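Reading a protein record of the kind used here takes little practice once its layout is understood. An example of such a record is reproduced below.
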Amino acid sequence: MKPLVVIPARGGSKGIPRKNIKPFLGRPLIHYSIDVARRIASDDRIILSTDDGEIAEVGRQTGLPVPYMRPGYLATDTASSRDAILDVMDWADSKGIDYDCVLLLQPTSPLRTVDDVRRCLDRYTPNIDMVVSVAPASSNPYYNCYEADPETGFLHISKGEGLYTRRQECPSAWEINGAVYVINPESIRKMPLGAFPRRVPVEMPSERSIDLDTPRDWVVAEAIAGVSFDV
């Protein structure tokens, strides 16, 4: 396979300011995703997508060239991930870079491993829209996830008849953990990721499925990584 690896790292993060270059166990956060990417693809097919000159320079510290810069209008809070990915694809096409899928590696998943990525790539075929990493859902819609009735306000089980008495008996439910996306280039040109009808899950353990969004997430992830961490 020839993945086009996209590492999205805009400058304007809000929950954790400058998180993409904030030291995680002593190294800038984006270095972990770059390390994984370079064990999957050649440098010419790894695109650090940033609008920020400092982030680009921190990326270059690993030896990775950063020839592409994301336009500012694709780095706002309202800009879509799809549009940012399409811009990278258009740039890669203009440079004659050959690829057969898009591998999205968000820097906010530093506990992702090379094996996680390879397992996702192994599941990809051109007749599906996306392979995505998942973790077991913390709440199961058949068991302990409820909705309020719009007329009465009373709670009812989100899915099914509410007859399950043991969580282990319920159908499995998954959460997309944000670590690995293997995307069909034709599919993303046609529709946003959320509209994909043909998505294949690859499970990752919950303890490595932390997506860094808050300072608390950061503390927990560093604690776990400090015990056992190997990209």
Remarks:
- Residues 138-172 form one domain.
